[in-house]
Amino acid sequence: ELRRKSLEMELKLKSREDGNLPAATIGSSTFSGKDELLRELEATKGQISSLLEQHAELEMKSKSDIKVLVKEVKSLRRSQHELKQKLEKSLQEKSEVEQLLQREMKQSEQALVARRKLLHDCQTLHSRLRNCNVKFVDSNFADSSSTLDVLDLLVECDKQIGLLLTEINHFTPEADTLSNNNDMKAVDHELRLVLRDIFIDNARLRKRMNLFIQSALQVGSSTDENGSSVEE
Fold first, then answer.
1. Which sequence ranges form a coiled-coil region, renumbered to this chain (predicted)?
2. Cα(122)–Cα(104) distance, rounded to whole angstroms?
């Protein structure tokens, strides 16, 4: 716009200089108008120059800002890529931790099931072993028929203890009930072996006790028979 006005003023000034007006009409007013146009022209040129300088400064500042923005965009893209990688790594670690927790929970459940089964087996064996006791109703055994009954009970008790010993010898952990943890597996195995040995020792001790009672009853019965023969 300023350029257009400047050109218009230059054209007007030139047209006045080249005009064919009579000399009488050209006076001081003409020179005054010319000077005014020149001043306006200079002012317009000054404004144009100032605007051009401002435009150049703005253009330089704009280029500088664009460079800064480009650097920031590149930095943001790098940061975004790094954050994306960190997020993927975090998600992968989270998934691995969840899988580890699930495995540990499963192992804990399996270990709990194995121990409950072990407790049940021990309670069952202990109950059966206690049932192998002979309850003596008659304490003096004077009657030979009572002695024979007790001897029969002792023989039956020995049979039950023998069967129980056979089962106890197979008192080992099943493969599917063992813990997946090697340490827990070793502990479970050792615990079952110790309990098995305890039950075996207890059962053998009961068999020896029964044998001792049998011998005592047989000796007592023989003594009674010999005494009766002497009296006759």
1. 34-111
2. 27
Query: Tokens for 154?
Result: 């002792």
Q: 196: closest CA among 159, 169, 162?
A: 169
Q: Which residue segment(s) compose the domain that 173 sits in?
A: 131-231
Euclidean distance between CA atoms 158 and 154, whole angstroms: 6
Among 18-32, 60-74, 157-171, 215-229, the range of highest mean pLDDT: 60-74
Q: What is the pTM of this model?
A: 0.52
Rounded CA separation 169/135 (Å): 27
Three-state secondary structure of 41-103: HHHHHHHHHHHHHHHHHHHHHHHHHHHHHHHHHHHHHHHHHHHHHHHHHHHHHHHHHHHHHHH
Domains held by the chain: number: 2
Q: Is residue 159 in a domain? A: yes
Q: What is the pLDDT of residues 30-72, one digit of tens each?
A: 556 667 777 877 888 888 888 888 888 888 888 889 999 999 9
* Judgement on whether residues 165 and 217 belong to the same structural domain of the protein: yes
84 domain-assigned: yes
Q: Residue 149: how many CA atoms within 13 Å on its side-chain side?
A: 12
pLDDT at 180 over 60: no
Say whether 168 sits in a helix, a strand or coil. Answer: helix
